[in-house]
Amino acid sequence: MIRQRTKLGPNKSEPIPIVYAKSRTLHPILFRKRLSRIEDARPGDLTAVYAEGYHSPMGYGLYNPRSEMALRMLWNSPEMPDDAAWAQKLSTAVSLRRDVLKLDSVSNAWRVIHAESDGLSGLVVDRFGDVLSAETFGLGMYQRASLLMPMLAEQMGTKHWIVRTSPQFLSQEGCDPPSFTSEGCPSQVVINEHGTRFRVKFEGGHKTGFFCDQRDNRRKLAEFCQGKSVLDLCCYTGGFSVQAKTLGQAEEVIGVDLDEEPLVVARENANLNQARVRFVQADAFSYMREMIRNGRQFDVVVLDPPKLIRTRMEIEEGTRKHFAMNRLAMRLVKPGGLLLSCSCAGLLPEPEFIQLLVAASRSTGDDMEGPDPNARATPRSLQIIARSGAAPDHPVISSCLETEYFKAVWMIVT
Prior knowledge:
Structural class: alpha/beta
Number of domains: 3
CATH superfamily of the largest domain: Vaccinia Virus protein VP39
Helix content: 25-40%
Number of helices: 9
Mean pLDDT: 93
Order of helices and strands: EEEEEEHEEEHEHEEEHEHEHEHEHEHEE
Low-confidence stretches: 369-373
Radius of gyration: 23 Å
CATH class of the largest domain: Alpha Beta
Shape: globular
Largest sheet: 7 strands, mixed
Number of strands: 20
Distance between the termini: 58 Å
């Protein structure tokens, strides 16, 4: 059983465990192969990190020998952090969102902690109204979450918090600890985004419960929707669908998702805003092929699939899926219409994603199931009018450019 820590760091009376790295680095994640020696460090320990040949620590991090990402660096200075140093990391992250980005005037749902980008590798936290929803990716952060979340809640002025592990926690960290919450934490809340209301359910949801990274893209899409027909593929709980109707005043909106559970929430979100949206439970590939057979096209198409590439072993298959989905989606866009294509796969760089989109637009192969005289695609031409990423509460840190994981390409399809 994985127990919560009662202290953020080691006791001052005890020697701190030591990990030796083969060379100095500012990158927040050190893989196991980059480490040379370990002294008295146990899974989840905060350790002093030395580079071979140096006599003072290059920093401090959380260690887990069971993980390939064996060391998550949190500090890059020789001074050992105390509880105040942890609190300062939280305070700095909150200040960025509130004082610099002024997100309280936009929504009561935004990312508070963005892992490495806020110097807290292994932890993301989203604020949904009065609840902080955390997802942990590292053992050391999970063990300290019961200490960190009350500290963060006090700084934020929120009442409740919930902590869950990532879907890959068992395979990456070598254990599968349970979720836990503050006493009396609600199972769902209603949040506000640009004046539109959304229900967020914490039980069984993806990630922390709602995708804050698309907040600005949802508002931007609404600018293209007035009086238009909109198809939202992989709609999850209906973020784009509801904003297209509510903010964008679209004439027709159809949201498609494979899973029934998020569609139940999507319908509730539409009802919360008195928005007429049709939600369909279907596989996106099958639905697109059916629409093509029926000769149906839309003024605006959004393609926002779940993460298709989670590991390097999935790059080839995930890239093929992105290609196939975009190839079909392009055929559903009316000439002169808009396609917003997204990818949250950090292992698919933006230049390669754009090359994939261009290749999909030129493809003329048979992408239908069964014999069909109209199955062969006609090449389409793309005008890329914008490229965007995650909302600014998901910053990119210069020491770990991989934190720029999200890509959104806005295209006129002719």
